[in-house]
């Protein structure tokens, strides 16, 4: 987790289960043992951090990290990517979880932009579609998944979100200082 701030106020947001200031900071020892890092927030694209530089730092300092993913709702991602020429050269995939029509509209615009090729070439992109969005997704937005090379995963909101057994949440301020 790189920040708490988000541009959404989702009723069932899993981040409401956490106080980011109480989540342990990732240690060098921990980072030397992991094979996958998922950059999340809040919304990571609301951070001042240059994602390309952050992911390059992770790769260079921790060669054991085989996969780097980014989790975003889409709106801030599309706005930031369009204005900052992100290349995602060290990223293995982007996980999109659009929450509202603004997110879907931003992803639509991004999918039609030439810079979307930087995302479509990544090895493992995902699009999380929540059950209540499924009909609208199939009728109006399915082409986004095709253009951006997204593996569609259908989900339900979970009021009792629990961290999966094989995952840990840590803050990454060592890369933000």
Could you walk me through the main structural features you see in this protein, from its secondary elements to its overall organization?
The protein has about 180 residues and is of the alpha/beta class. The protein has one domain. It contains 6 helices and 5 strands, in the order H-E-H-E-H-E-H-H-E-H-E. It has helices at about 30, 50-60, 75-85, 100-110, 115-120, 135-145, and strands at about 35-40, 65-70, 95, 125-130, 150-155. It has a 5-stranded parallel sheet, covered by helices on one side. Helix 6 (about 135-145) links the parallel strand 4 (about 125-130) and strand 5. Helix 3 (about 75-85) packs parallel to helix 4. It is globular and about 45 Å long. The mean pLDDT is about 85.
Question: What's this entry about, in short?
Answer:
This protein has one domain (14-175).
């Amino acid at each position: 987790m790189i920040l708490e701030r988000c541009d959404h106020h989702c009723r069932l947001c899993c981040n409401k289960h956490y106080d980011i200031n109480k989540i342990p900071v990732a240690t060098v020892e921990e980072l030397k043992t992991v094979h996958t890092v998922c950059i999340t927030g809040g919304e990571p694209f609301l951070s001042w951090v240059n994602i390309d530089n952050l992911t390059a730092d992770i790769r260079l300092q921790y060669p054991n990290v085989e996969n780097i993913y980014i989790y975003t709702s889409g709106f801030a991602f599309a706005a930031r990517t369009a204005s900052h020429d992100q290349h995602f050269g060290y990223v293995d995939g982007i996980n999109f979880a659009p929450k509202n029509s603004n997110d879907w509209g931003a992803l639509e615009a991004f999918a039609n932009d030439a810079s979307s090729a930087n995302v479509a070439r990544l090895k493992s992109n995902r699009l999380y579609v929540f059950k209540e969005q499924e009909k609208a997704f199939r009728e109006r937005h399915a082409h986004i998944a095709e253009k951006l090379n997204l593996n569609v995963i259908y989900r339900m909101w979970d009021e009792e979100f629990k961290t999966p057994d094989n995952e840990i949440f840590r803050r990454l301020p060592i890369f933000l200082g």
